[in-house]
């Protein structure tokens, strides 16, 4: 192996490392938001199952799932209040 080949391999490894470091933070943020959105959707689904017994329904869409997932209980209160204000 020549020195040029070794330098090329070293350069590619450094490039891959730098790209990984640049993309790791944003990808981790996207994964965290997606996970919390799925948790919010599951929570809304369970609340809708229970709410069916009382005759109450909260909408289950991407915006409400993200609100419930990212804000938690205050997000559910916001969804509830906004639905009551518009009804």
Report on the architecture of this protein.
The protein is an all-alpha fold and 87 residues long. The chain has one domain. The protein is 87% helix and 0% strand. The protein has three helices and no strands. The protein has helices at 3-54, 62-71, 73-86. Helix 1 (3-54) crosses helix 2 (62-71) and helix 2 (62-71) crosses helix 3. It is rod-shaped and about 75 Å long. The N and C termini lie far apart (75 Å). The relative contact order is 0.10.
Cα gyration radius (Å): 23 Å
- Average of per-residue pLDDT values: 91
Number of strands: 0
Q: In one word, what is the shape?
A: rod-shaped
Strand content: under 5%
Structural class: mainly alpha
The first-to-last residue Cα distance is 75 Å
Percent helix: over 70%
* SSE series: HHH
Tally of structural domains: 1
Low-confidence runs (pLDDT<50, min 5 residues)?
none
